[in-house]
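User: I'm designing a mutation panel for Type 1 glutamine amidotransferase and want to avoid disrupting the core. Could you give me a predicted structure to guide residue selection? Please restate the sequence first so the numbering is unambiguous.

Assistant: Good idea. Sequence first, for numbering, then the predicted structure tokens:
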Amino acid sequence: MQIGILQTGASPDALRGEHGDYPDFFERLLQGRGLAFRRYHVEAMEFPASVHDCDGWLITGSRHGAYEDHPFIKPLEDFVREAYAEHVPVVGICFGHQVIAQAMGGKVERYAGGWSVGPTDYDFGGERFTLNAWHRDQVTLKPAMAEIVGSSDFCENAALLYDDRIFTVQAHPEFPNSFVDGLMRTRGPGLVPDELMAAARDRFQGPLDSPRMADRIADFFLSHQAKKTGAEKLRA
């Protein structure tokens, strides 16, 4: 199954040599799960010609706010709405989670409660996932058609499901602890409170559930492909 990665930001220059850029993270996260990848740097206005150019789409994180006035954001929102209308599956992570919610009628804001950083516990219908977080913006009002499928004490709308067509997560399952530590060193000082970064580092010794979330993301894509294949066989 071909997944188009819509890149909406770039990893810091100081970390890119060791960790790669954002699409690299997702290809590592999802490797071995029956998915192939094609990259589109939409932040640089490199958009697919059609929502059908790939079998599904994944929107990455970004240092930008979904509510900011950047040239790529409105075309990306249009792309999301068209993919939803055409039943092409989309996954959004962090900024991707937020810009999808905004495109579909929700609201994204700089959260008054501040930052969420490092390993964080999320409740997915009674199942706990510990995933890395790095965000100050949040979806503060979910779109009417979206179902909350994951939340935390800090972030109510931490994961949203839009029918069987869009699945989004506020956390960063693609980020290992070493990269979050790098973000704290390169972007954190003066921006993220020191006590939050210290608490995040204290949790780095515990396990992350990134592989389980990778399974969930892959299953979302592949189940959609299986339904599409089944429908095509019925029409044949």
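For picking mutation sites, this is relevant: The chain has one domain: 2-229. The chain has a mean pLDDT of 95.
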